[in-house]
Structures are given as structure tokens and as C-alpha cells.
């Protein structure tokens, strides 16, 4: 009897218990909770390897308790990998998706005919090679359920990043650090009851355009909201319906001019969640977001978007969404529940250029506009400072890092190093043990940097 017990234990150890202890399925997501019959659903699975060595794990993906697909993934020690599977169902019903102990579901519904706007004197398809600007940064976030800090990815500054993409398309000699320096968002700050944030906000687009010598063109729906930063800008075009707006946008793209647009992401989230895990893990909500339209294909019914918020820049290139979903997102840009409320059909593009300010002039200008930055931070530290938004701190961290790159590229290495240090402190601020001391250290770094360029 004793020998049987020992053998039984050995069999258990070598028949899967070690694998279960080493690997953990941490996320199981579907790209959409509801899809039309015949449309695809992307199933995302994240697996962690908690062991001390590289290993291979076999995932058994089940739909309604039936094996749909076996997936094999090799994962480095203490790392995680994301795998996906695309499935199509036509039967009208709900389907349960499961991997080990995790489960989720999606429902298949009757298809709804999508009526596209008729094209008027524009090509049926057109796409531009617009470079992507990625502003995602790793931030610490505290999870109360687990009682520990974990790394999370934050991707803010979508407005200036989107503008940066159309700038870099127009001038490949520039990079995003130039856009940040010419916008003023890399050296200013705004402190208030909501926490800390970028100083200029969307006004940074106006600053960058003026300093870079670009003439902007703005489009908006009849009676729409352009935003207070753009109230003094001339409106290039107004639209009374989706057809007018889409044809104008298509003609702009077909004239080799990318456009940034403001969207309510609720309507495009499911399409984008087919492309990246980053969008799949985001809740479907009426959230403000700026993206760049890089092209369209009328025959396949797609609009292509560049996005700044992927885990990598490559993820954000030419993300497809249906024309109908895009138009709904574009039309409802003023109806978001979080973030900017601009629209309907808010769009911005570059229509001309003139003389550009020199880097020496931009350094002098940044020094001038940041004169009170350190004192603002110190005043904020002397009150009741809070860490309310990871996104706002991520934006400050990215903006300082990019301004540091601009200074490095223009031979101001010592000042660049100080802004880089400030960026790192913004990045780690949520987990700082002494928030006041961290804020005062940032203020000192930014003030010292000002004296060096």
C-alpha cells in the first residue's frame, strides 16, 4: 500500500501538476460581445510563465464545451505572451468561450444592412504611408484586490501625437520630439484639484503649427463644437450629413493629405479589438480619442486609422474599421462621456506652410513659457497633492522625455539629462513613498534644466 501511494504521487507530479503551477492563463477576452452572423470574433488569451525557465504551454480553446483549437506558445521565464484565435459563427445564439477556469461569451445576431454614402468624384480607394507616433509608457498601478503594485500601459497625448503624425508625413526630417518642443507641452504644467497635467493641452497643436509654419484647415459638422482652442481658427469646411463629411474626407486623403479626426471610440472599439489586445482589454465606452485617417477602401467598406496608444508603434498602423462604424464614431464625437467633446465630424489637416522658427528660437520660447513651471509644482506640493490620473502623469512623463530628446539632438546634453530624470519621476510618482518630496525634486530638476539651454 505504501508503495502504491508513492507511485501515485510520482505520476501526479509528472502528469501536469508542475505545468499548472508554472503557467497561468491570466486573461481571456473576445473582441466583441455581440457580432453579426458571419462576422469574425477574435479571442485573445494571455498566459504567464511563473517558472524559472523558458517553457512551452498548450492552450485548449473551448467553445460551448467543444474543443475549437489547440494553441501552443513558448514563453520566457517570468514573462507573458498573448495569443489569439479568430472564429466565425453564423447560427443566431450565444456562445461560451473557455480556457481552463476562465470563460467569457459572445452572441451572434442577425446582420444589419449597412448603407454607405455614395462616393462623389473621388477614387474608390486610397491609402497614405503615414508614420505612427506611439506615446504609450509603463506606469505603476496599485491593485487593491491583490494588494500590490503592477505595471500598466498608459497611452495619453493622443491629440498632439495625432498632429505629430500628420506633421511627420509632411516633413520626414522632423521627429516627434520636435513637435513636442514646438508645441510647448514638454516644459509647462497645469496643477489643480484634478491633479497634475500638461500645461497647454490641445492649444499645443496651435502652438506647434504656428512655430513650425503650418497653416491648418478645420472641418466640422453644421453647428458643431470645434473646441475653445480652435475658436479663432478659420473653418475650412462644414458638413450637414455623413455623405458630405465622408466625401470631403476621402477627397482630402486622395489629395495626399492625411487628416486627424476626433472620435467616440464606442463605435469603433470592437473593430479595433480584432487588431490588438490593447483595444480588447479596454472597456467599450463613449470615450474621446484622436486618431489619424490614413486611407479608405470603399469596395471592402473600410477606413484605416493610425493610433498612438498601442503596446508598440507597429500595432497602431492602418487599423481597419468599417466605414459605417467610423462614421458613427466621427458623428458622435461631441457626445462622449469622458474626455473632449468635439464634433460632429471634427477633422484637422495641414493645407500650407510658411517660414519655420529656428531651434534656437524654440529653446528661448520654451524657456520663457516655463518660467513659472517650477513654482506651480512647488505650490501644488505645498497643498494637498494627489495622484488622481495615471494618464495625466504618463503624459507629463512622455512630454518631458521627448523634450529631453529634442535638447539632446540640439547639443544640450546636460539639460536633456535633467528633463529625463524629471520624466522618470513623473513615471514612478504613483508609487512614490513621499509625494511632496518627489514633486519638489521634479521642480528643482526642471528649474535647473531651464538654466542650461
Report on this model:
With 453 residues, this protein is an alpha+beta fold. The protein folds into three domains: 2-109, Sandwich (Immunoglobulin-like); 125-186 and 194-353, Cathepsin B, Chain A, CATH 3.90.70.10; 359-450, no CATH class. The chain is built from 13 helices and 20 strands. It has helices at residues 2-22, 158-170, 176-183, 203-212, 242-254, 269-272, 277-280, 323-331, 359-369, 373-382, 390-409, 413-428, 435-450, and strands at residues 23-30, 34-36, 40-49, 55-63, 66-75, 80-88, 94-99, 102-109, 125-127, 136-143, 148-155, 189-192, 195-198, 214-221, 235-239, 259-264, 288-297, 302-306, 319-322, 347-353. Strand 12 (189-192) and strand 13 form a beta hairpin.
Outline the secondary-structure elements.
Layout: H1 2-22, E1 23-30, E2 34-36, E3 40-49, E4 55-63, E5 66-75, E6 80-88, E7 94-99, E8 102-109, E9 125-127, E10 136-143, E11 148-155, H2 158-170, H3 176-183, E12 189-192, E13 195-198, H4 203-212, E14 214-221, E15 235-239, H5 242-254, E16 259-264, H6 269-272, H7 277-280, E17 288-297, E18 302-306, E19 319-322, H8 323-331, E20 347-353, H9 359-369, H10 373-382, H11 390-409, H12 413-428, H13 435-450
Parallel strand pairs: 2-8, 14-15
Antiparallel strand pairs: 1-3, 3-6, 4-5, 4-7, 7-8, 9-17, 10-11, 12-13, 14-20, 16-17, 16-20, 17-18, 18-19
